[in-house]
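Lab manual, section 2.4: Encoding a predicted structure.

Procedure: take the sequence of the chain (228 residues), apply the prediction step described in section 2.3, and record the output as structure tokens. A sample record is shown.
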Amino acid sequence: MKRDHVIVCGAGSTGTYIIEELVKARVPVVAIDLQEHELESIAARFPDADFSLIAGDATDDEVLARAELPTARGVVAALENTKDNLYIVVAARTSGSKARIVARTGELTHVEKLRRAGADAIITPTYIGSMRLVSELLRPSIVRFMDDMLRDDRVYRMDEVTLTTGSQLVGRPLHDIFDHHGMNVLAVQHAGEVAWHYNPDPALALTAGTILIVLGSVDQVAKLRAVA
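Recorded output:
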């Protein structure tokens, strides 16, 4: 049985980029698409990845069941049709799964409907593209930095790690993360708080439930999660 994987519904142009990024981040993936050759093409590029493919309709309950929804950590509804993505959101949320659900829609007017259906996050490619155009105009160096980081073979990423009650880091100063794991902590959010603390004090004592936003390699993040 697969566990802690991400189910990607749709392996078109958007879904392919999603799958590639998950594979680079070493996240197990189960991809669903009607076009089996698309899935096989992706799998051929990443022969050593934890990647499973299911040729079928992601809006079919039996197909979703084959993706082992109950044990998934996340579901991405990346089909072209918003109604299909809405069905996937409802099916995933009503299945009892605790997976984080992210859905795609082409219209901002559909965002609230997907949210009410149970999506944790809704992405509108047109809106995101517009924000990218503005960023290219106003802050091109930052955009270039983020793009270069994503293309870097060493796979450095900004990621998030949540400290559990039994973590050996609880009670330790924040600078231990840099001293022992070589990562910079860009921001922290304490349990029960909404606000983020940017450029936190290195002497800050770590507490259970704190979310850390870190910049590091995939290996560094994995090692930090192991003790978090």
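Check your result against the sample. The two ends are 25 Å apart (CA to CA).
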